[in-house]
Backbone:
């Protein structure tokens, strides 16, 4: 019996969209007000989906408390109330678009999860803009 | 033209997580406060997705009223305001985790639906925890 | 400068509507399926509103972390994953309707809050049914 | 790196469910109160999902502003505050069920999007009824 | 013990904003695309709040089922899937703005409720526009 | 006939909680991770409520488009994608707590609104924390 379990989480962070390999002019043209050098910020809403076989002994795919604690350690404690560009290692060289943040979160969780599970990450940057990444 | 139509429903129920084949100690260690012998409960939110071909005569995949009535008969009338462990036959021997409740709902609906349709069930146990089952 | 700050919280619990001073027949007639002797349950969503003067030294009415911790201690830790009728002292003799649960929560928080603040409690029993109590 | 980005939009419109090739009696039997000749209406909520490769130069799959402007031009400006049966060309001969509206929106967006992208459209007719179409 | 209980409901309807005492030109200038003679429509979300004393015998202010049935009879059955301008008596001579619809709903419910209760009506025309009326 | 109309809006901004009249140590003790000198950010959701008499000529309290444009000019264009501490004049000397942001928004809107209207501002800093200010 194959199932997907989902857990929601959230964190608040500042960022600016800025691609280090481009000039200031190109960055401003590409990212507009999202390129503001003083930063802006978001309440990021995160949904983590884990797919696999239900354990017949417990009726759980994965203990939700274990999954919630993993998300807390790898994402919330790591990114919440941070400036992504300045204070999160992965974004020193990577533009913190929603696409790239989802990619970083997926990779941080992937290495901590049993390899028998598939992993999907949905990240809301605003209630109207969101992205989904599953490692393909 | 292949499409998926979704219908939301909800029901309120009591349950405790308790695996009959394990000892009390093991149950308590595995399920913590969810193992409370006096039960706790949830507002379960359910999304039923049905995939198939649109009927060119009507422009419907399935009449939403028919689908809503089916969910009412098979899920809402059967589980709403019930104690899942004590009053729902399937959970006499099956631990009522979200995974297993989704599995039971999927099976109850599957036998009533035209075999040309695919079926997916999403069940929210809380706004932060949910599962998805599609019969694989 | 007078303002109201709000904090949301939630807890899951089982209950049955049952008025100890009435007969079984009367209880069943009054409360229907909510009187189920095996209990049912809800995800209770709680909004606590505190009104008062903003502290000019901090720009806070009350530190949200202090308010969140108070709600956790007095409501979440006290009622979450409990059977309200059987395991929460106030409902040994009080029918746990949404009205009465809001009343109990309001009283538990009131005694812990500075008397210069006004207090309002909004309690969602389901997404469609909710109550509001402000101690009048 | 393959990802899906989503953008939400909405529009308000009147419609009636009415299949031109059927008799009035058949229409009434099939569509009930949705066949009301004076029309009724909805706040349609739309989620457009675009799947493809992230541009390594920008960290974007597609500029959300470009996607939002496309949805505005092709869907919102075209359908908002309109009577779908009377004022939207595609529904002169096509019954405006949620299934068909999603199909029309998908086709309007498909021709404007780079062919390297996949496209998925989710359309909420009410908070409880919605459909998903991805062009298969 | 004074409390407010709330019940949510919803209905779908078509309307156009059109003030019968004004000319076509004035109507178009005032109401823009909301004046479309072919109508548009909304999913109206309604919250009905009733304030009064809790009945010590039951722990209820009012039985939610009674309140839900009243809203169904007076609002949902009366307005759902209707054209407000053409098929709802009150709007033959009254422009169906959100303000006026809330006013009509309040009056329809007021005459059916015990005079010891206060009544408040909140009506969402869209998720971003809503009005509140309490009979003052 | 007295009514309240509400309009929702939103903006994204960076900020840090920092009271200029206190030492770094005191700021850190008071505001914890919200005092991060590199800033963090939020999706602020705003609800503006305007109370007054409905204009019998139009059936409107205030044209929602006029209200939406006012909020856009005074709040969204002014604060969206900004660093509140560094780029919004009012917060050069005022700690940008939710309480103070609501106060600033209320004052910016108040001077532009007809004095016959009452004004209420609700500001969500996160989905769980929000404040309400009405100028008292």
Residues:
């Amino acid at each position: 019996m194959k199932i997907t379990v989902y857990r929601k989480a959230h964190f608040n962070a500042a960022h600016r969209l800025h691609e280090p390999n481009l000039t200031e002019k190109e960055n401003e043209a590409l990212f507009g007000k999202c390129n503001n050098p003083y930063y802006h910020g978001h309440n990021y809403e995160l949904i983590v989906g884990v797919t696999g076989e239900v354990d017949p002994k417990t009726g759980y795919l994965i203990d939700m408390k274990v999954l919630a604690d993993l998300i807390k350690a790898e994402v919330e404690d790591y990114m919440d109330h941070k400036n992504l560009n300045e204070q999160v290692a992965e974004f020193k060289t990577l533009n913190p678009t929603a696409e790239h943040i989802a990619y970083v979160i997926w990779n941080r969780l992937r290495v901590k999860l049993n390899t028998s599970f598939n992993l999907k990450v949905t990240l809301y940057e605003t209630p109207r803009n969101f992205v989904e990444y599953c490692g393909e």
